[in-house]
């Protein structure tokens, strides 16, 4: 795990992706203009923050990394398992499509997603120069969205899962993530007895390990090279937004990814 800093923006990059012709950044909440409780680099437009501040934050991110804001492709993240492939940016007049995974092999398209506890999963196919970002909360995880993304990359780009590189980004850790019994039941229905691997019980409460569950989903889809950041959003509020850690009153941090033009 590697933290970088540029123009006041602090961001995380996966070690496994270094040296590849792609750019990626998991932005922390530092370096933006939003006021508390959205301080400061909030990129969520539906959380109650000032829209002008959110726009400035987006522009600051794009300007800092040298990509046109108009190259952005983003979606309305709905906790499903639909993954879409794009070969062009979303124009400002186009409504956000609903999806929780986005893929491209087109240079000049910057994939963009927002997070606050849910798991960002970044995918790189170095052989076919294709990339993807997945948004996996507990629902996306038991609906196996990571597997959906791998399968779609196979269909769209000819990706071989065994050569794919995956990164499991900053998100809520098991100790911070108490869940209800309905979550345990959903996982048991989806994974059978194996679901017990993802839960610990403490004083009758369930705690879910999203990192382990998503790593298993990726491995079952044939992915072998998985790097887990191991950084908890709720444990590290100076760097990250945490829906759980801040009782719902918070912003969204950004994940940005693109293929370098050459
Ligand atoms: Zn934690």
* Helix and strand pattern: EEEHEEEEEEHHEEHEEHEE
Our count of helices gives 5
Query: What fraction, in percent, of the residue positions are helical?
Result: 10-25%
CATH architecture: 4-Layer Sandwich
Distance between the termini: 26 Å
Bound molecules: zinc ion
What overall geometry do the principal axes of the alpha carbons give? Answer: globular
CA gyration radius, whole angstroms: 17 Å
- The total of beta strands comes to 15
Strand content: 25-35%
CATH homologous superfamily classification: CNF1/YfiH-like putative cysteine hydrolases
CATH fold group: CNF1/YfiH-like putative cysteine hydrolases
CATH first level: Alpha Beta
Domain module tally: 1
Q: Give the low-confidence spans.
A: none
Structural class by secondary-structure content: alpha+beta
Average pLDDT taken over every residue: 96
Instruction: Please outline the major beta sheet.
Output: 6 strands, mixed
- Widest sheet: strand ordering: 1-2-3-15-7-4
């Amino acid at each position: 795990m590697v933290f970088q800093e540029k123009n006041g923006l602090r961001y995380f990059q996966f070690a496994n992706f270094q040296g590849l012709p792609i750019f990626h950044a998991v932005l922390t909440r530092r370096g933006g203009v939003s006021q508390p409780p959205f301080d400061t680099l909030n990129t969520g437009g539906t959380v109650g923050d000032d829209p002008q501040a959110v726009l400035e934050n987006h522009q600051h991110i794009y300007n800092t990394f040298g990509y046109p804001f108009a190259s952005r492709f983003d979606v309305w993240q709905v906790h499903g398992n639909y993954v879409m492939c794009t070969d062009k940016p979303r124009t400002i007049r186009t409504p956000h499509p609903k999806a929780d995974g986005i893929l491209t092999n087109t240079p000049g398209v910057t994939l963009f997603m927002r997070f606050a506890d849910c798991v960002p999963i970044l995918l790189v196919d170095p052989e076919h120069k294709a990339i993807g970002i997945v948004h996996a909360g507990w629902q996306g995880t038991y609906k196996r969205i990571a597997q959906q993304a791998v399968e779609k990359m196979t269909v769209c780009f000819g990706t071989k899962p065994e050569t794919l590189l995956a990164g499991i980004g900053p998100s809520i850790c098991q100790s911070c993530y108490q869940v209800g019994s309905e979550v345990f039941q959903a996982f048991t229905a989806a994974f059978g007895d194996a679901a017990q691997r993802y839960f610990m019980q403490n004083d009758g409460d369930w705690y879910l390990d999203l990192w382990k569950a998503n790593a298993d989903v990726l491995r079952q889809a044939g992915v072998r090279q998985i790097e887990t950041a191991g950084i908890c959003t709720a444990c590290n509020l100076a760097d990250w937004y945490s829906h759980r850690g801040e009782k719902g009153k918070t912003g969204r941090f950004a994940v940005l990814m693109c293929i370098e033009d050459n």
